[in-house]
Every structure is written in structure tokens, then in C-alpha cells.
Amino acid sequence: MVPVDATATRDFLEALVAGFSILGGFMAYPSGFLAAHALALGLPPEALAHQINLGIARGFLSGSPVAVFALMIMAWT
To answer: What is the band of 26 on the pLDDT scale with cuts at 50, 70, 90?
Structure first.
């Protein structure tokens, strides 16, 4: 059985949480912004749902590299 270093495991989990937190923020902001914009325009619910999904996708695409970069920084320090 391979011994597990508790400190290294905790540091890795903290880095993982930091990366996912950044990714979640990048996904939440554009989806909320596009949802508010769609509501202001009075779009139907189907279009509102599409705008929310579009915002989530845009946030994922732009936030993934930043989240990976943050994960690497947190894991190295």
C-alpha cells in the first residue's frame, strides 16, 4: 500500500476547489448577464433559457484556461 501524504492531499484539494470556484464564477457572470438582458427585452422563456445556456457555454470556454492556470499555481505553491 502506498502511503498518502495528508498535507499534499489537502493542498491538492484546495487547488482543485480554487480552480472550480474560478470556473464557476466565469460561468455564472455571463449567464446572469445574458439572462438579465433577455428579461429586459421581454424574450419568451425558451429564448431566456437559450441565453442562459449560451452564457454558461461562453463562461466555460473563457474560464477553463484561467481555472487550469489557477490550479497549477495553487498546486505548485
So the answer is: very high
